[in-house]
Amino acid sequence: MDLLCLLLERPGELITRQEIERRLWPDTHVDFAHSLDVVASRVRMALGDQGPNPRYIETVPRRGYRFIEPVTAGREGGPAIALRDSKRRLATYAAVAILAAILAIVFVRARYDTFVPPQRPHESPKAPAR
Question: What secondary structure, in 3-state letters, does the chain show?
Fold first, then answer.
């Protein structure tokens, strides 16, 4: 998501591999070349932009990437704000789902005895009478 936001900040403009590394992996020591290739591939897959003729993201070999589809802002602030809003909305949905799961667990635990009859302790076998 961060790579897509970065590309959408300046559509049509080449974003160099060095700039992407500075912005997305500033303080980490990762195999950057491979990591960036994997991330770019995942963004393309999410956009359905796979194949020899890209529609959204163009690779400039050994230099960087650019978002090539024309971008129009539907509201003030452009597509970067729309993507941040999408992230926020997704986080809200995740939080609601987690809260609902916690409430369901609490409800079931509170009503456990109603759903599952109590087990009777096993009686010890009686010794045979002599």
Answer: CHHHHHHHHCCCCCEEHHHHHHHHCCCCCCCHHHHHHHHHHHHHHHHCCCCCCCCCEEEECCCEEEECCCCCCCCCCHHHHHHHHHHHHHHHHHHHHHHHHHHHHHHHHHCHHHHCCCCCCCCCCCCCCC
Give the per-residue pLDDT at 91. 78
pTM higher than the cut 0.85: no
Q: What is the pLDDT of residue 72?
A: 74
Sheet holding 64-67, edge to edge: 15-16, 64-67, 57-60
